[in-house]
Amino acid sequence: MTKTTKSLREDPVRHIVWRGSRLDVLDQRLLPRRVKYVSCRTAADVAKATKDMVLRGAPLIGCAAAYGMALAARRNRLKDVLAAEPVLRRARPTAVNLMHALDHMLAVARNGDERSLSKRMSAAAVRYYRDDLAYNETMALLGAKLLKKGSRVITHCNAGALATAGIGTAVGMIRAGFLTGKVSHVYPCETRPYLQGSRLTLWELMQAGIPATLITDNMAAHLMKTRKIDAVIVGSDRIAANADVCNKIGTYGLAILAKHHGIPFYVVAPSTTVDLKTPTGERIPIEERSSAEVVSVLGAPIAPKGARAHHFAFDVTPHRLVTAIVTERGVVAPADGRTLKKVLSHR
Amino acid sequence: MTKTTKSLREDPVRHIVWRGSRLDVLDQRLLPRRVKYVSCRTAADVAKATKDMVLRGAPLIGCAAAYGMALAARRNRLKDVLAAEPVLRRARPTAVNLMHALDHMLAVARNGDERSLSKRMSAAAVRYYRDDLAYNETMALLGAKLLKKGSRVITHCNAGALATAGIGTAVGMIRAGFLTGKVSHVYPCETRPYLQGSRLTLWELMQAGIPATLITDNMAAHLMKTRKIDAVIVGSDRIAANADVCNKIGTYGLAILAKHHGIPFYVVAPSTTVDLKTPTGERIPIEERSSAEVVSVLGAPIAPKGARAHHFAFDVTPHRLVTAIVTERGVVAPADGRTLKKVLSHR
User: Fold this and answer.
1) What total number of domains does chain A contain?
2) Is any Cβ of chain B less than 8 angstroms from the Cβ of A293?
3) Which helix or strand (DSSP H or E) is residue B340 part of?
4) Is A34 on the interface with B (CB under 8 A)?
5) What are the chain A neighbours of B304 within 8 Å (beta carbons)?
6) CA dist B321 to A298, A340, B344, Å?
7) Is the ipTM of this complex over 0.85?
8) Is A237 labeled as catalytic in the residue annotation?
9) Is the same domain home to A146 and A166?
10) Domain final position from A112, A136, A160
11) pLDDT tens track for A265-317
12) Which of A45, A237, A244, A315 is catalytic?
């Protein structure tokens, strides 16, 4: 194990903890002020925690769903698993990792004896989680190689350890970059309305000792024009077959701004994020959440009573605005959608 | 007076009230929750209210500064006025209307008898305020003509009645547009960090009965891609001689996004906003405010303790991204900076 790999694995965030009969989930809505866990004893509990944003981040949602299926299997009854699956599937419609995890766990459930169901599902969920960790490590090291020495980077939302089994996708690449001298400074966008950037990403960066300066989402363009910005690095919730990238609201705008300023735009996501069944980004359903989450910040109202608001949770960045997609299977320049298919073909 | 003009003048916001011996200023930081006035009895009081954002908006800052100079003249001593001028000038470095108002009031002070100083300055401040109102009305009607019927528009920050003597610049054009069937729906960006969009602009629009839906700053690109958006309309704090536009942070990004989607980008500002002494936008000083205003929202912390943050208050939009500048003297397509000079030449 290299020094960088070792450092990457240090201080994993204990944000989902599998206890065999329950899954303890760190309530990310309370970070960085409070560290509190929500105990999930059923698949419905996991679905609720996912829907309510106790946990978030596409890869982590996938891991939690796998454990949710393991919880549904505890009485060794296949019908419980089959009943739990659609409940989990509805929790967050945009994250394809969720669909991938459920498909995988369904296949495991059906492929064997009902008496061993709980044991097999539990083992499969743990394996799914460990695979995500390993993917993150590979992507972090592959991605860091793309950066030039001393890069100043912008990131959006939280594609960090908290969004995955650990290490992180975009933030994993940034961490590996920092450990190898490729990253010198990070500007996380605060990421309204949920403020994942200021609450979670900045917190992770500060924990890791990486120099970071918070910006509001609307400062990115000014920063790109007036300071040296070498890269924008983000995660993804779903990537279409043509390499269009769905990610947290604001990503598409950042990609346009990066293009305008000639700054490379990198997407870091495990291959489970790629949905070959979705031909283009236009076909990805964009979750619309409650407007209450926009007209208030941390519960405090910021708009007049009766105000209307849109709350698009995600947007789609066309592949022509993406410089490269970093997966655990390799780096893809997505100008040509076929490349992505090829890289993923032996999945 | 046409019906539109009459409607435009209805319900002026009582946000600065001249009482002869004091200026009562509506505390915009508390809107829309509370209506409270701050009494300014000296020029220093006005400077403090301006610096502390009790009042904001470049044209309004100019009007308040004119009244501040009138307050300084109350003892009929020119030296008081000369001493007050630099105190007011330092209050907000970016707003050129402030500089314009002070230059104008200094000229008034010097042009006459010291015994009549207070009387002359008071009358000049009232005239300055009324001129701004008249400019707004002219711009609103000129600007509305640029729009096509039933337009859906995005605006940023607050360039409304609250930012001016009344009626507003960008919001004035929107109001005139609504009254003439040119505007069907408005999307104000919330405008972090101060939330002028959600707190002030949305409030003004709702008061005027104009259909409006709030968006976070990072939703604008998605909205431009997925819905019909016909125009972006903003105000300005200073326009350079080459027609580069300085305005609230986030404006430059919006202009790039508008260009990318082929959407016209309009700037509405009185000719006092144009600073012919500043050759290009790069020469405009960008105010950097306290990072405390970014790491918290309405006083509640949103980032880890000890977090660093940038707080650029403004940015500069190059003139090639601006479709037209609407002034009270006419509409300028700024691709050619000389046009601007020509329109303003008989000022």
Assistant:
1) 2
2) no
3) helix B337-344
4) no
5) 32, 199, 202-203, 206
6) 36, 35, 21
7) yes
8) yes
9) yes
10) A136
11) 999 999 999 998 999 999 998 989 999 999 999 888 999 999 999 999 999 99
12) A237
